[in-house]
Amino acid sequence: MKRAAYRAETLSPFDLQGTEEHLSAMAAQGWRLESIGRFFWKYRPAEPAAVHYAVTAPPAAGEDGDLGDRLYFEELCAAAGWEKVTDWAALQIYANGAENPVPLETDEPLRLETIHQSMRRTYLRDRRNQLLCYGGLLLLTLGQVFRFPRAHFLSALGLALPLFCLLSLLGEAYAIAGYFRWLRRSRRRVEEGGVPAPVSRHYRVLSRLSGILMVLLFLAQLGTLVPLSRPSGWTALVAVLSAVCVVVFWLLDGALKRRGASREIRAAAGLLLVVLCLLPAGFEGFRPFEFLDEAGAPPSYVWNGENWDLEPQPLPLTVEELTGEDWPHVRRRTVSQGRTPFASETSYSEAASREDGTYAYLSCAVLDAPNAWVCRRILEDMLKPSQFFLFRPEEPGPWGAEEVYRRFYRSGEPCSEWIVFWPGRIVTLYAEELELTPERQAVAGAGLAPEEEPS
């Protein structure tokens, strides 16, 4: 026995002829429409048959919620052989298995205006709300790009987010314009004694693309929450949270719908649920999948109670190169912080120790941005003062760089962190238990400076 089938249909509520023809074709294949949910249409298996369908707008409920006129309308339809199948937004779908059924609608002008009023309360209202939502989101994301250029120019998803918002905005505007074009053509046909105009099939393709774009937009928003410094563990975390969010949202939405909650209340509850599901990811130190990050660690050995690299990987600058001394025990890491056509950043870190217990730590993040405007915007973003720190310029000569800045506490005490700028490259250098004398600054600058292009 076949089970029920669920399909994500792309039919618009005002596509009367297309919906009727589609449902008749499904019935001929042995599938009868049973219900229409938020995302999927449910079909039940049945014997293939020739079934006629009709989409209509029933009488509206009274101001006190009275459904008397609607129930009377359903009784009249049943008497004419039309069985109600399901509700669809403010519309209803009826089926009739007779070979030549009595037409469900005889007054096409009244039918068209009734459907138009229904679309104003449902379809057009939803499109308008989404248009405003995408417009606000587009302005917000563009503002974020200019407020935090480093984070966005390093994130492909962050850069894609404004594009997704713009395409979604244009899609909603096209849907609204498409509806009014259909309404204008339908009124003209009805005035000539015909039926409402059909909707072009390419409109269904655009609806499908709109759904795909909405999913990509959601994934892009989730992706901007994933710290690229720990991609494996955090990707798994986001996947789990997304799955949990979808399941709980489906259960919550069903419970609210059974209790008669409005669409606005259900949408607000869904948004609150998304925020609650993603809230733990905002806490620093929250590492539920830390073991995944350590799975790809290089071979190591234990000395003095710590793990050290058995075969240290090469780095642009090492503690040994910086000091000119031998450090037998080292632990090195290389992590990509993001890569887009506009910028790429890789962080390198090394912990080094010697037999006498001397310890040193060195880390540097090399950010390459070939475009001069993008590189300058990122540098300005990195130099923004915070509540506790600020950057002060230093003499760039020893580094062989164009500009050098050092981080200071607000109290005036210097930190062991520098930002070194060359055209097209920004390096953030942090040294612990290592004094960066001018000689060592020259060594660091020589190792981290961009390679000169051959003339």
Tell me about this structure.
This protein has 455 residues and is an alpha+beta fold. It is built from 13 helices and 15 strands. The chain has helices spanning 16-28, 68-79, 108-121, 123-147, 149-153, 156-191, 202-223, 231-258, 263-278, 290-294, 319-323, 372-382, 438-448, and strands at 5-7, 31-36, 41-45, 52-56, 83-88, 91-96, 300-303, 306-309, 329-339, 344-353, 359-368, 389-394, 403-409, 414-422, 425-432. Helix 3 (108-121) runs antiparallel to helix 6, helix 4 (123-147) runs antiparallel to helix 6 and helix 6 runs antiparallel to helix 7. The longest helix has 36 residues, at 156-191.
Instruction: Note the beta-strand portion.
Output: 15-25%
C-alpha geometry = elongated
How much helix is in the residues? Answer: 40-55%
Spatial separation of the terminal alpha carbons: 75 Å
Secondary-structure element sequence? EHEEEHEEHHHHHHHHEEHEEEHEEEEH
Q: Uncertain regions: pLDDT < 50 for 5+ in a row?
A: 226-234, 281-295
Secondary structure layout:
Layout: E1 5-7, H1 16-28, E2 31-36, E3 41-45, E4 52-56, H2 68-79, E5 83-88, E6 91-96, H3 108-121, H4 123-147, H5 149-153, H6 156-191, H7 202-223, H8 231-258, H9 263-278, H10 290-294, E7 300-303, E8 306-309, H11 319-323, E9 329-339, E10 344-353, E11 359-368, H12 372-382, E12 389-394, E13 403-409, E14 414-422, E15 425-432, H13 438-448
Antiparallel strand pairs: 1-3, 2-3, 4-6, 5-6, 7-8, 9-10, 10-11, 11-15, 12-13, 13-14, 14-15
Helix pairs in contact: 3-4, 3-6, 4-6, 6-7, 8-9
